Amino acid sequence: MHLLFTEPLRRQEEATQKWPPPGLMPLVTRRFALPGNHPAVASLLLVFALWGGLASAQVGSNPGGSRPTAALSAEVAVAADSNHNGRMDLHVTDSRQGFTNQLYRNNGDGLRADDLNCLLSDLEAKLRGSLDSFNLASTYRARCADHDQHDRAIKFFSELVATQTNKLRAQIELGCAYVDKIPTCGGVAAVVSKGNLARKALDQMDAVIKQQPDLWVARYTRGLNHLYWPRALRHSDDAVADLTRCVELQEHASAGNPKSYYLRSYLALGDACTKNGKADQARLAWRQGLKLFPNAAELKTRLALENDDALLKFVENQRTLDQPIDTDLTFLDRAP
Q1: Which of 143, 95, 97 is nearest to 120 (CA)?
Q2: What counts of helices (H) and strands (E) characterise the chain?
Q3: pLDDT per residue over 240-262, tens digit each?
Q4: What is the DSSP string of 164-185?
Q5: How confident is the model at residue 93 (pLDDT cuts 50, 70, 90)?
Q6: How many other β-carbons are positioned within 10 Å of the β-carbon of residue 67?
Q7: Any residues with CB less than 8 A from the CB of 53 and at least 6 apart, and which?
Q8: Domains in the chain: boundaries
Q9: Model confidence pLDDT, tens digit, residues 321-333
Q10: Are 118 and 37 in contact (CB under 8 A)?
């Protein structure tokens, strides 16, 4: 087997080959040295060419890796696109530096596993200092989600719930972290797993709202959670109740000067009414929102669907646990 690796991955010893059982992706393992600033798999290109018992693999890298080599001396398994994002990923085992065993997800951001750990640790330190920034917390959760570090985010915010004086903010972020993990659920038990995560998120929001019944962000995130559950599980009533309260809080607070994110409540309230079988109330909510946001394409698209069945189908395609739920709360820092 011939392995051709371009710099900065440098051969340290002869490669070995491993062929798994039929139906599994072939893995190629070898020892290599990884430069200190090599963006692990940011531009990893794996090409298998099988011909008469010969195989070749090429790994390319971003140019500009100039720092001294940090030899990982690791067994490396160069695998196919493990998370189906169109980029090749790299699995390192028995590494002497960074993570001992780590799947390097190639998300196109040039982050190695140890770089990612440093970034997340830095964000965690800032969040321990203050949870005031929705942008910072959302950025942290997004980074965790991008690199399959959902459990790290859940553990981190669970610790903050137990230790922070600003417990309610920590609970909101913990609830969002549970929701962020929902898209990872697969297999025969996917529905159950998604439901368990959504339920854990609801438990956090319930606790927040028990303390502050009129906290808009808690009502909104809980209402959105209810909105995405299947209609058969009867969460639509709860979604309507929370999102109706959001609209009431907005109208009381805005005094004719609505914040830009208030559009979200009208949009979601109408969707909740639609899933609750009340298309007329849905259109009323959207028209109410359109008066304040006359250029809102999302509202116009829904109001253009005059057939109730077509409207329900449209909303159900948009609001389902099969779709990622947007938990990015940075808009609260950007208001208006």
Answers
A1: 143
A2: 12, 6
A3: 999 999 999 999 887 778 899 99
A4: -S-HHHHHHHHHHHHHHHGGG-
A5: low
A6: 11
A7: none
A8: 1-111, 112-211, 213-329
A9: 888 899 999 999 9
A10: no
